[in-house]
């Protein structure tokens, strides 16, 4: 159990600070920059620490109805941190300042042409979360204990790739990469392991 308090915030900030991100690629990339947020907040039961996971609206053109961390494409000249905070506000009406940022995880390249930067933030006051119906069908608080279970993640193979496909088991759903990969790396950071996830594969339906 990780209580939602200042001690947990300090511990997670220290874990993020101790994590050495992979170096950024020096040459220009053809991938479009994007950012997502691991927003830490109080769990539904109260007391425990959780992160926010959304279900994308069913009318969206891309990845409709899928589980996702809040986030999106970086605007021109926008840093990943700024984009992550902007998207969190636009999707969930949760406005945070840069002081809420605890750290960054590894950039994850997607099959659909994006380079995603995961930004870990502390959302101390999330009582007024309001999902934007244009983008979000629902928002869920996933207790950190959930992702620390031994059976929370598994790996499988697909004939289209030699890389392992990661899956996060949430309730009756299977959540795949990139979302599952980023959550998995965050789980590893929490326990002090420098586990890389850029080689973890996405299912074929996410390649577009």
From TrEMBL:
Write the record's keywords in alphabetical order, separated by commas: Hydrolase, Magnesium, Manganese, Metal-binding
Does the record bear Hydrolase in its keywords? yes
Q: Which residues form a coiled coil?
A: none
Per UniProt, residues of the Nudix hydrolase domain are 30-166
What InterPro entries does this protein map onto?
Answer: CoAse (IPR045121), Nudix_hydrolase (IPR020476), NUDIX_hydrolase-like_dom_sf (IPR015797), NUDIX_hydrolase_dom (IPR000086)
- Kindly give the Pfam families that the UniProt entry links to this protein: NUDIX (PF00293)
Q: What cofactor requirement does the entry state?
A: Mg(2+); Mn(2+)
What SUPFAM superfamilies does the entry give?
A: Nudix
Q: Which domain of life is it from?
A: Bacteria
What is the official name of this protein in its record? CoA pyrophosphatase
Kindly list the organism's lineage. Bacteria, Pseudomonadati, Pseudomonadota, Alphaproteobacteria, Hyphomicrobiales
């Amino acid at each position: 159990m990780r209580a939602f308090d200042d001690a947990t915030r300090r511990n997670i900030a220290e874990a993020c600070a101790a994590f050495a991100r992979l170096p950024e690629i020096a040459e220009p990339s053809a991938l479009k920059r994007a950012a997502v947020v691991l927003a830490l907040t109080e769990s539904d039961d109260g007391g425990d620490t959780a992160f926010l996971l959304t279900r994308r609206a069913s009318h969206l053109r891309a990845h409709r109805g899928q589980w996702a961390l809040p986030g999106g494409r970086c605007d021109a000249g926008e840093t990943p941190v700024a984009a992550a905070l902007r998207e969190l506000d636009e999707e969930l009406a949760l406005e945070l300042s840069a002081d809420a940022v605890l750290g960054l995880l590894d950039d994850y390249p997607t099959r659909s042409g994006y380079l995603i930067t995961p930004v870990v933030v502390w959302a101390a006051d999330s009582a007024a979360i309001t999902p934007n119906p244009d983008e979000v069908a629902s928002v869920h608080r996933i207790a950190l204990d959930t992702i620390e279970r031994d059976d929370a993640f598994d790996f499988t193979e697909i004939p289209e790739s030699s890389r392992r496909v990661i899956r996060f088991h949430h309730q009756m759903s299977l959540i795949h990469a990139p979302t599952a990969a980023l959550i998995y790396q965050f789980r590893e950071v929490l326990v002090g392991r420098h586990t890389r996830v850029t080689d973890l594969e996405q299912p074929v339906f996410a390649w577009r």
